[in-house]
Amino acid sequence: MKIQIEFFHDVLCAWCFAISPRVHKLAEENPDVEIIHRAFALAPNPDAIVQIFGSKENGKREILNHWRMANENDDEHRINFELMEQREFDYPYSVPGLLACKSAELQGGQVAHWKMFDRVQKAHLVECLNIADFEVLKKCAEDIGLDVDKWERDYESEIVFQNLAYDLEVAKHYGINGVPALVANGRYGIIGAHKYEVLVKWLEKVKEELGKREL
Predict the structure, then answer these.
(1) % of the chain residues with pLDDT over 70
(2) How many domains does the chain have?
């Protein structure tokens, strides 16, 4: 029985960074599971931080509080909130990093999307680089072994914008308004950076429900 899990995430999301290794493990230990990556934009435009939090300063302060909490959730405590506090660039918005991942997907499918997503998140949450900077994203593409010239052409293409818009529409269709979120076979969802044991139990329940539906 094949199970398709749509993994909704944003490159800005510290909780997504914490759960991504657990989803990797879930897929590795369950060969019947296929992961489909869906982009979700918490901050869809350059002014989103101000619109949400009132000012860039308030936004960064509140977001770094989320980083601290997510770092406690992360199994390896990799999130470097202290370094990001020292950075002087504006806190980035979602779209450049999401387009980077969708461009990788055009070149190498879901595997490349995931590699790029993890690399961009590391650049953001561990190295604390400005992932709204195209050159930072380009270096991430190089780091994961993509054809960088093709990736750059794809990044500027209409199709990658359309693919991003499609993911956002899928999230809207499911009623998803926060990430990380997992949706199995378009029906069974779980939201939040749950520990691996919780994900295992969720997947077991999904398999049980799917088994009943096949009877």
Answers:
(1) 99
(2) 1
The two three-digit tokens of residue 32, written as one number: 């019947």
**DSSP annotation of 126:** T
Give the angle 38-42-126 at the CA atoms, nearest 5°.
85
Partners of 188 in the β-ladder? 184
Cα–Cα nearest to 39, from 88, 85, 105, 84: 105
Q: What is the pLDDT of residues 43-100, one digit of tens each?
A: 999 999 999 999 999 999 999 999 999 999 999 999 999 999 999 999 999 999 999 9
Domain boundaries, position 183: 3-214
pLDDT in tens, 26-39: 999 999 999 999 99
Residue 44 · residue 13 · CB < 8 Å: no
On whether the pTM is more than 0.85, the answer is yes
CA–CA separation, 130 and 149 (whole Å): 21
Query: 128 and 80 in contact (C-beta within 8 Å)?
Result: yes
> Nearest Cα to 99, choosing from 47, 146, 138, 50?
138
